[in-house]
Specification:
Two copies of one chain form a homodimer. Chain A has about 190 residues and is mainly α. The termini of chain A are far apart. Chain A has seven helices and four strands. A three-stranded antiparallel sheet of chain A has the order 1-3-2. Helices cover about 60% and strands about 10% of the residues of chain A. The interface between A and B is large, with 67 and 66 residues. β4 of chain A pairs antiparallel with β4 of chain B, so a sheet runs across the interface. Chain A binds a DNA duplex (28 and 28 nucleotides) through α2 and α3.
Chain lengths: ~190, ~190
DNA sequence: ACAGCCATGTAACTCGTTACATGATTAC
DNA sequence: GTAATCATGTAACGAGTTACATGGCTGT
């Protein structure tokens, strides 16, 4: 009673993993990209609010997208470029409009360790939080660079309007995290000298 | 040239997944818990900044912890309760003090979809963001309830001091997200009536 | 009697990772 | 010449999920 597995798995078949749509989305900005370039784009943008997929996964994903005719290829020597197809645009739009986004999942090792702070020393926790602040600063700077690169095409209606909204979102998020972390460091310091 | 796999995998063997330490951490608050209760605790606390593991995973994890002597069991009829051992305390402390926490990973489907906002209608995005705000309100309320349950044992030096720090962190995070989302909705509205 | 919660597990499967393997092109 | 970057893949593996399966206990 199963569907023919050789048939187009979309629609009706199993839904694609979100990362497939994420990569497909990277291909909607007008250019043809190689797997290698897709990875670079992902590292620049997706990593801040999704994940930076491993190189090998990028290649597995584009292979799948190709199989499903959601992308086409242009081969030049040893280099294969991927371009989104009409079917790909359709699948992406369909996914956006009909499946709920879902609530974010946060894997926050710093908060997790703080939760069980009583198993170690306060100084250990302070070091951890200070390192986290430093990493936040680095990451914020990276994202600010990306945001700066969008200036000039970030007005409403322009190609990078939405990416700029998301980048600003991320900057605010990093600022917020930094403030909460500093506040928490303050509360820890109070514990030392009460 | 491999280690004897029957030997104690810790230390020297493969490190435990973070979720193991998370569950171990839940057992450091003084009580013996069943797998079922561990799942409940995880749903109440871990879910906000780590994950709520599936029921089946909880049982697989406690089996592993038992195999490694990081927990012991007390069997009463069909019910098995888990208690952390000295070795468990040691492994947890060791993990906290010697392995870096790492930067948080955020899987944010709302931001991801906003990034490719140009493939759909603005109204679609507005609906998505409004739903997200609603979910944030619900989640914030859930966390506020947890936070309220800690009152009375949340002073420095008390058992739930650290959990209360983390809960307050989470509340601030939810508030921040809500504000950014509303701000983004404003910017989207400007696009409509420019 | 029946629903809902308590309680425990197995099996199949998918996503995504690391490690491995290869080789061309470009910059110094 | 040699290191870094570009470029593409395969294999083994692990974490974690859903679906499945079972059954006791509790309240109405």
């Amino acid at each position: 009673m199963r569907q023919d597995p050789a048939a187009q798995p979309l629609p009706g078949g199993p839904p694609l993993p979100v990362t497939s749509y994420a990569l497909l989305g990277l291909l909607t900005f007008g250019d043809e990209l190689t797997g290698y370039e897709l990875k670079q784009r992902a590292d620049m943008t997706l990593r801040f609010y999704w994940t930076a997929p491993a190189m090998s996964q990028v290649y597995t994903e584009v292979a799948r997208l190709l199989r499903l005719d959601l992308v086409t290829t242009t081969v030049e020597g040893r280099t294969t470029r991927y371009r989104i197809t009409g079917a790909g645009q359709g699948a992406l739009r369909e996914w956006m409009d009909t499946t709920p986004a879902g609530f974010p999942v946060l894997k926050h090792p710093v908060a997790l360790r703080l939760l069980m702070g009583h198993v170690t020393e306060v100084s250990e926790l302070q070091t951890m939080l200070e390192e986290y602040v430093a990493e936040l600063v680095t990451n914020r700077a990276d994202l600010a660079e990306v945001r700066a690169s969008l200036v000039g095409a970030d007005a409403p209606g322009e190609l990078f309007f939405y990416p700029s909204l998301v980048a600003d979102w991320g900057l605010d998020y990093f600022d917020g995290e930094r403030e909460v972390t500093l506040k928490t460091l303050d509360r820890l310091a109070q514990e030392n000298d009460q």
